[in-house]
Design brief:
Length: about 170
Amino acid sequence: MEVAFSEMRNELQSRDALWRKIQLECQQLHAELLKIREYKDMQETQTKHQLSYAQLTEQLENRTAELLLLAQSEEHQREELKKIRNHVYQEEQSHRSEQERMKTEISDLTEELHQKEITIATIMEKAGLLERQLKMELELKDKLLVKQQMLDFQYKVIKSENTHLKGML
């Protein structure tokens, strides 16, 4: 997008340079027109001059036609320059809007990431607590299992004693 802006700026600069050149040529043509008019006036007063009034009038008409063409070209260049400036302005506005949208999106994503990090930290803390509770419950169950096994062993011992005593009776 920067390249497009650069190209558009170069095009604007080129058109501005052409515009200045056309203006300079118009000024030169105006000066020449004044000189021709002065020359024409001098010719009317002096008979030594070789060009006739008709030739001067034709030259004047030619110069006037050139001036008109240059003026039309100048107007066309102004319109083109205006179109290019408007296009560059619209592109810059579009670029700014896109940048703002991206900034907002990045900000939203950053906030979402922060919330997820907080959630993960909370879950990890709860998982640690649950793990400790599980270990405590496992230890308690292990103790109860050992106690149960002892009771089963004592039960079997007493049962075998009872069986032995019943056999003796």
